[in-house]
Write a structure and sequence with these properties.
The structure is a single chain. The protein is mostly beta strands.
Length: about 130
Amino acid sequence: QVQLAESGGGLVQAGDSLRLSCTASERAFSTYGMGWFRQAPGKEREFAAHISRDARILYYADSVKGRFTISRDNTRNTVYLQMNSLKPEDTAVYFCAATATYSSTRRLSRDSDYNYWGRGTQVTVSS
């Protein structure tokens, strides 16, 4: 069982930056691909970014591409989401998730692609 804990959320103004962190309890963290998802009030949870276990495969949702950067430090069992040029529409609860699946041909962007989830961290962007 992998336990994930997000941190780094908060209240910021439009145009500001935030860095989210997600730390895993599992020493086998380096064997999992990691994703970030978000859920805005009244909306379904949506995919934001993915990084493969070896950090060779990265991709983003169109809504965050060019503004958000996912990265990982396997020595710290941590995945990051650097969020720049934040917009009010980025307001959401952000979740990290771990997947045992590795694919170089299919985007792992569905909830069902991931095996473990954190509880989320709130990001609020004011205009």
